[in-house]
Design goal:
By secondary structure, the chain is α+β, with helices and mostly antiparallel strands. The chain has 2 helices and 7 strands; from the N terminus they run αβββββαββ. The chain has one domain (25-128). It has helices spanning 2-13, 92-99; strands at 42-45, 49-55, 61-67, 76-77, 83-87, 106-114, 120-128.
Length: 132
């Protein structure tokens, strides 16, 4: 910790103060999300379904808690503004877009994964578009 304190003091003296950390939501940098898609979802069986997780482009560990008893779950979102939906059948991309406040601000990555009980399900991830 002493090294970090010394570094902070040296940076401030050179005119580069670090400032306080804000706990606000992360905003993707322009170009960071362009063409990005999760590589390999991690699926873990739960008592009501499964957790479907991925590593976000900002370093977060985000996901969706699938409850098999619910026919139409709400999307779940992460700190970067991604929205995720997991469900059976075709149309997951359309379903997630219908749940977004401003669908034109997102592009959708659609992948099929196999659940621990052997059922293939669609994973729709709405990713914020970068500013043009």
């Amino acid at each position: 910790m002493l090294v970090l304190d010394a570094l902070t003091t040296a940076l401030a003296a050179a005119g580069y103060p670090l400032g306080d950390v804000s706990p606000g939501a992360r905003t993707p940098r322009p170009g960071l999300t362009e063409g990005w898609a999760p590589v390999g979802y991690r699926i873990e069986k739960t008592g009501v379904g499964a957790n479907v997780n991925y590593d976000g482009y900002c370093g977060c560990d985000a996901g969706f808690a699938l409850d098999r008893s619910q026919a139409d779950q709400s999307t779940e979102s992460c700190c970067c503004g991604n929205h995720m939906l997991v469900g059976p059948g075709a149309g997951a991309g359309d379903r997630i877009m219908s749940k977004l406040e401003d669908p034109a601000r997102y592009r959708v990555d659609l992948q099929t994964v196999t659940m621990p009980w052997g059922q293939p399900l669609d994973v729709a991830l709405a990713i914020p578009r970068t500013a043009e």
